[in-house]
Amino acid sequence: MPVTAGVVVLVLALVSVALTMQRSPEGAPARLSAGQAQPRETDVRGPRSTAPSPSTTTATTTRPPTPASRTTKRPTPTAPTGPRIQAPAVTPQRQVGPVAFDPAQLFPTGPFRTVVSRAPVDPASASYVQRMSSEKLVISLRQWTVPVYAAQQSTPRTTVALTQTWGSGITELSGVPMPAGVRPDPAGDGHLTVVQPSTGCVYDFYRARRDGTGWAANWGNAIPLGSSGIYADGGGTRAAGFSAALGLVWPQEIERGRIDHALVFGYPYTRAGDPVAPATRSDGRSTDPGALPIGSRVRLDPSLDLSRLRLSRAERVVAKALQEYGMVLGDTSGGFTLYAAQPLGLGADPYPSIFDTKSDWASLAKLPKGRFQVVDVPGESAQGAASASSCGQLE
Questions:
Q1: Which pTM was predicted?
Q2: How many CA atoms within 13 Å lie on the side-chain side of 35?
Q3: Residue 252, CA atoms < 13 Å, CB-side half-sphere
Q4: CB distance 123 to 320 below 8 Å
Q5: Which has the closest alpha carbon to 300: 135, 127, 129, 130?
């Protein structure tokens, strides 16, 4: 017993000394000095992905998820996990080509700027919409759409050879300001549009490509920036005779929360024959009674309460534009699609954050297609051959 008591006294003395050493001179618990790093969790536990230590039972490998109090130590996800997307508060411009370009400057007049929320519904609307309801509506983001570049006043001009002129005899478009490093859309249509704000001109190309040291395209034309964006003679690079830059969804518009123009869309079931206004040309090919004429305008029912659809910010901006301005059928396509400005012309890809997707298409499945309405179709417009533009010389 005396030996045991002595051992106990010795142990107590050692514990007392250890506690004294762990306190500051004032008797407060010791703290890390300024500049001394706080040990990380992995300093004492090892990386989370390592196997359990030998003293850890196998049951720990199936423990519940980390409590909420520790989740702040994990990296924040790099992409949104739900539809609640907030647009960044930025100036409504992006760097497009070598100069800052605001798409609000594009085509400020004409039918695409006309509000149609009170326009009469076409008598055959129900038949058209029934045919439409079998298709999935999407927005083309990264292919089968249009990169739009901006040229400076000093951008060198070139002549673009035109290789498929449909009997017009036109073989080139001269005086085109082509910025260095431009690339057409990678999909089969190869759309490419160049805007030169200093001269007020827009240059459109279909199936554009480099040709040795120069440029070639199946077709090209030019139109004034301040116009309607509709080639009166059918000479545009859209099948409807539109500029390819007309009716696009722009990230700047999503950021400022409003689209002030009609959108253009492609659709598989387009009626064979002449177009309807505002189209000036048609590539329609179907005899199906439910097929839409090129140039038809479709809107989302203005009485639909968008707040009940649980839309993201971007989806709501697009849906509101469809209620107010509608969408105009501009092309026969493989799917039912709207078109966004291609990221190649933006200098960066904003769509993973805006539409919460890395896919080439953003779904609009939340919009009820049964609530679409075809606006009263106007009289058919005459088709015509391409003619010279005030912005470029077709030869």
A1: 0.74
A2: 0
A3: 18
A4: no
A5: 129
